User: Fold this.
Amino acid sequence: MLMKLTGGRIYDPAYGINGKVRDIYVDDGWIVEAPSDGKVLQELDLRGKVVMAGAIDMHTHIGGGKVNIARTMLPEDHAADVVARTELMRSGCGHAAPSTLTAGYRYAEMGYTAGFEPAILPSNARQAHMEMHDTPIIDKGGYVMLGSDDYLLRMMAANNDQESINNYVAWTITHSQAIGVKVVNPGGINAFKFNQRKLDLDEKNSFYGVTPREILLRLARAVKELGIPHPLHVHGCNLGVPGNMNTTLDTMNGIEGLPMHMTHIQFHSYGTEGDYKFSSGAAEIAEAINRHKNITVDVGQILFGQTVTASGDSMHQHAGHAHAHPNKWVTMDIECDAGCGVLPFKYKDQSYVNALQWMIGLETFLLVEDPWRIFLTTDHPNGAPFTSYPHLIRLLMDKTFRNEVLSRLHPEAQKASRLASIDREYSLYEIAIMTRAGAAKLVGLADRGHLGVGGAADITVYTDHADREKMFSKPDYVFKDGRIVVKDGDLIDVTWGTTHVVKPDYDKSIETSLKVYFDKYLTMKMGNFKISDDEIVDDGRGSLTIQPLHKGGRI
Amino acid sequence: MTEKVEEVIRYDVPSPFCGIASDDLTVSIIGQKVKVLENGDAYTSPGFETPITDRAPRVNGKEVTLAVAVEHTAKLLRKSKQTVISGLATDLNGARAAMALADKGRATVDHMNSRAVFKNTLVLQNTGWMNTTLSEVKNRVDMLLIVGSDIEAGFPRFFERIIWPEDTLFDQDIESRSIIYLGKGPSGKASTSPEGKKAEVMLCDDADLPEVLSVLRALVAGRTINAQEVGGVSVTDLAQLATRLKEAKYSVVTWVASMLEFDHAEVSVQMVCEMVKDLNIKARSSGLPLGGKDGEVTVNQVAVWQSGYPMRTNFNRGYPDYDPYLSDCLRMLKDDEVDTLLWVSSFDITRKVPASKALTVVLGRSGMTFDTEPAVFIPVGTPGIDHKGRAFRADGVVSLPLRQLRDSGLPSTFDVLSAIEQAL
Assistant:
């Protein structure tokens, strides 16, 4: 059914369109050319409205083992935000560790149409997909975690060539149905199993003799050579450790110009200056990002209140367990593959450290110059639940509001930050880059994040309210694949999004050695490890979208 | 003349029956007859080999069509003021359908094994833990402490598959692995090493285990104990055990919650988990709760991601309301709080429907028997035999794809529950 969206002010950075009034035509889920005969079946008057593509959260913990551990652990947090069933929606719970159903509804209600789970363990990938399958409306996908798995470290210790590592990466991404590769505390999760309690960039794993720097180089090169659009997604060494800004700078310098995405950079931008031996490294980090064009980052902004931190980084989650609030926590060693740690956490505005973390995140947003290389995240739920994005957008777009909030925070932290002196305010165009066009480009979604002909009709329509938090909390309309799913901020239809993946080529001969490895050392057969396309389609509600690789990718 | 039915052999078949999801089975299928040829055990082989007997649904003992049974069930649920959906021995999609039905029908959900499972869940919700998974244990364990559990009675292949493999990643001499039982001893020889080294056993009564564990934890934490003996166990022996745990490179403490048959065993599980945390101040140590049969892990996982809460959650008020005491299905039935019980049991025909005054609808494996004929009985297929499915194993991390081995025509639990939900 051909629909015309008339007269909206379009923010479509993929095509350089910055607030121009244009009509958009939608047919059968896609954005199409204006019909030659001018005939449309339905018309929606969007004059005066702001129109963007549906937003894309490129790093959000929405599915998989550690998220479900977090949910199990937090009955008291759910109790304050239980969600009743309606004619349209299933019941569930919200806030820090929302149920899959509620997460999907709430993302859509905020104008988001896709979210990517950043830490899919190969051994737990099946569960991550089960949960994402039960997440309505939004498209999903994820990055598969490598870098602490014994298979890779054995290959590296044996000095296997890059081609064999590329094969292994391609095989893993294919059979865990992922769209990218992530590394968390490279080699560190593995080292923790050998009772190492920290692992700096050039420190050797005590068993394999391999360093994080080498792991990053091997994996970043594999991702690039395979033509996988999403650069290696890196949760660096020393998360949360005061002074880790130096490791972060070394990591950027050490990647030899290869594309690398450094995630929740806020947690990796700490100095050791001042009375509290905890200071902001945001200026130096932002300056380095501005200089290194191969680097992209998302922020991992913290916001105040109760949340839960769920990470693959068992080493640093264990190190931080004394901060668990309430006082309960989990870590796991997992399948000679990876690990995880889950700690409930409360960020307090009168804590020096927490207040400064808030400032470091915002300083990073405001000091990184190129909005195509920085992305809006709270590392949901680690810095804050994703439902706080409209508030965060207001902090970025409204200096008066930002400084007013700042003035209420821990006074010593205020003195330690230059945030109050930063005048920058994000424009709508820049927000559209960070949350749409840039995110789609970064993840490698050819058909999302833009409003050009041939793009999926994932569209969000807002009222241009001066209070940006209000504006971004309640879109007038959200279209998912051409269907209106949200009207005036309320859900009116429930659809089921697709799962985005890439399928890089690999040499089948790798299965000979992998099969031996699975048989000898693991506790499942290689054939049973593989997640079939049918499992993604499942009961018919799911679907698979294979995104194109960069040209020239090779094994 | 009947046509000869070809035998089909399937390899690497995963078992949904054994809790540790052994997936190295070789299975023969001749028509409807399934036989485990290799790598079966006391749970897996009967699980696969139970023959199909009933095929027709029954309402009040009379055979009816599936459509009639579904409509009758929907009628009962529409009239019900307090429905409990329990048993819930099913796979991923069965669990999904049960949650959808509970949500729509404002029912309470609980699992047949909840009494055991909650000994662990309550600890996770109160203090947490440091746990590990089967492949880590297989490659790393140098000391296995088994608390209050005769592992091989419940998990016959645990030692063979996990503790005594031929190869490990880190070139460990598996004969150097220490196996220590605390509380119950082993009923067989599975824990004896390939070269004949027997497990060490420190026996005590179940009733004394909480006290013994608290002393062991105190010793691990470096506290002084004045008593000479606790629960019949010498404190000197416990002190030696504490020292060995602290010196081990990768100790694993395991237990089977269903075998901790004493009141408030969750407190003992907590004692173990906190001891493991204490050990990790300097060494590496992990817990490993064993369980996972009858879909108990799968169903809890699905309930948690769909609602935020595990079993023992009710939807009476239109939203999930979790109460591990009030929404205990067995307690509710005993106290006559349930008017309609929907019981799902698709794996094990020996599991009985709990007796109660409630009108009972059973979605059960063909061959199930009843002390009292339920109001409705619908024979359903078994995941991993009659239809595809997915199931989590004990460690809650790994799940396996279950296969369809024969074309029995039996509906899946998902199909039936979804039809009931549609009819509501």
Summary: The two ends of chain B are 47 Å apart (CA to CA).
